[in-house]
Amino acid sequence: MSSLPAIAGPQRSFTSRARDALSNPWGRTRFLWVVGIGYVLWSLVPVVNAVVFSFNRARSITQWGGFSLRWYITDPNESVLHDPNLRHAILQSFTLALLTVVIAVPFGVAFAIALRHWRGRSSGTSNFLMMFSFVTPELILAVALFLLFIDAFRVFGLGTFAQAMGLVVLALAYPVVIVRARLLSIGATYEEAAMDLGASPMRTLGRVTLPMLAPSIFASAAIIFVFTLDDFVVVNQLARDSSNETVAMAIYGAARTAPTPATNAVGTLMLVASTIVVTVTVMLYRRAGRRRGDIESP
Amino acid sequence: MFFVFPFYVVLAITFGGVDPILRQPVPAWNPANWNTAILSFTWSNITHSDGLYHQAFINTFVFVALATLGCLLIGYPFAYFLARHAGRWRGVFLVAFFTPFWISYMLRMLAWISLLQDDGYVNRILLKIGLLQHPYPWLDGKPLTLILGLIYGYVPFMVLPLYATLDRIPAPLLEAGRDLGANPARTFWRVTLPLSRQGILAGLVICALPMFGDYYTQQLLANTANTRMLGNAVVDSLTQPIFVSRGAALILVMLVILIVPILYYLRSTNRAAAEGLG
Q: CA A38 to CA B71: how far, in whole Å?
């Protein structure tokens, strides 16, 4: 359906081809191919450029001075390996991402399972609040949490704890939505069968429900990890001082003042990290789907 | 509870007072003690043409509207291509399309900062092909750069719902349009476009909402007073304890304005989900 077979040879004139292109109802594909390829180039070439310049020998991020690993390893002060701020930022980003996964995933899964058991008003309301956090600007939530931690929760104060809590609130919706979709698609049959065969509710949960949910739990953990690794607004608003600085904050700070290729280098490293997580997740998810014989998107 | 309590704090601080000695906000936890002084102060600074937040307020609406429109104009043809014409290359294009979702926003903006420098590649190319005589100072606080940056940052959110909608339009409907003698433009206008209305609306909402809270793109690409957005006003006021309650009031105003599109979006997705399951 995408295009009709070409009838004409290369010897036809431009005008006759143009007339054909206009009169052929399904022949707009060439323009759309330009759009498609143009879009992909536009969205990815800047990033490729940024990655390439992380290997610049010179200090500039606009003038290419030859290939080197100066900004990754060899520069004694400013490379990612030797700049304590950048190293700390990487550590902070990964710490927060792990903390968020460890807290938000069990909560989210429990929430999704609980939502199925309480029907009616309260499940509707919490479902609504979950979706609300998806579409509301992140800044609104970040400011609300900022006010919370400088005021009512002053005991905790701003800092890593506040950042992790903020990310959990932000990320909680992902496992709930993903696991819930999976729960709805499995239905109650398997659990009922296990119960009929004499399994207790806890045993049913452990031996039937959770194993069946495993791919979606894993997928939501990966999504949360990648997403919190890059988060800026909440993390920035809930930071106390420079010891809470993450990579996103470091790039933001450098980009506003004087970025060096080391900024590109640390961004590239994070890009590699999230690409690995995404690739591994997709592969495992596909394999799990194939083993079960039901490939399903979350 | 996770969500409700923080929002209540926003209310309490907005409607609270400011401690005259410690110069920091005093929340009013009891709605009976609510005091509207700060909210009305903030509101009058938005509505009066020489108010503190007036310019930022206007800027936000203009930039978000233009950037969302730009996202639609770029996103729709791409989503259409992806759904209909990518053929066996669709997988490749889908992967390429999803990649920006896991590339840090800051890295993507940093990439543009380097491309748009006076001696960056954009200026070099434009000079070489003769479109410019002198390098254009893209990063000198130009609204154009900010809008282009917003489009670049948010266009994937537009493509996603559009692609989902366009992909679901059954091919027989289009063939029917063709068989009944409609030319492609007419088929598009009478069949595809009406059927993708839901996707367009979802895309507009999902693109515009986060832009209202965006302050970092402005800081990175066009950091001057005349391109300030509402988000900048909020973040700036939070850095000084005495102005924190103004920030809370601004957030409240933002939330009240955005609540209509948010609720609309939630309702329509809920309905779509219910139809899908039923």
A: 14
